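Try this one yourself first.
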């Protein structure tokens, strides 16, 4: 049995871009934390209008919470991609071994399989929602 990948499999599983965004968010959160420290330090050393100070503090707090939410969302996306990669690799290994797949369970559908096309020559093309196609040639 020969496995032919059509398209870029990494589109489903690549986490490089997500890692870059995570690193950027970590730096942004650190900058906000430093702004918090400066704001608090200024309030302890010099007299501040407390209503203005509280407003700045609340703005920084909201900004930090938004960055933390983005960070958690990206972590979730990264974990999802890693799970899809694992499921897809397991599925591909099953196909390579020539094991019979009689039904499509959650593991198959977890990586967004749109459809499977069985050809006259008994090969099967698996088409994913991302547009990636995996063709498995019929074995003898």
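Now uncover the answer:
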């Amino acid at each position: 049995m020969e496995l032919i990948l059509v398209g870029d499999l990494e589109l489903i599983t690549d986490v490089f871009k997500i890692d870059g965004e995570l690193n950027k968010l970590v730096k942004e959160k650190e900058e906000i934390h430093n702004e918090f420290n400066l704001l608090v330090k200024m309030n302890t050393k010099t007299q501040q209008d407390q209503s203005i100070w509280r407003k700045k503090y609340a703005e920084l707090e909201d900004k930090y919470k938004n960055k933390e939410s983005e960070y958690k969302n990206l972590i979730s996306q990264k974990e999802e991609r890693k799970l899809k990669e694992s499921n897809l690799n397991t599925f591909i290994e099953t196909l390579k071994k020539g094991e019979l797949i009689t039904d499509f369970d959650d593991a198959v559908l977890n990586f967004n399989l749109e459809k499977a096309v069985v050809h006259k020559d008994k090969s099967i093309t698996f088409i994913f929602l991302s547009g990636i196609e995996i063709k498995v040639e019929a074995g003898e």
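Discussion: The chain has a mean pLDDT of 81. The chain is about 60% helix and 15% strand.
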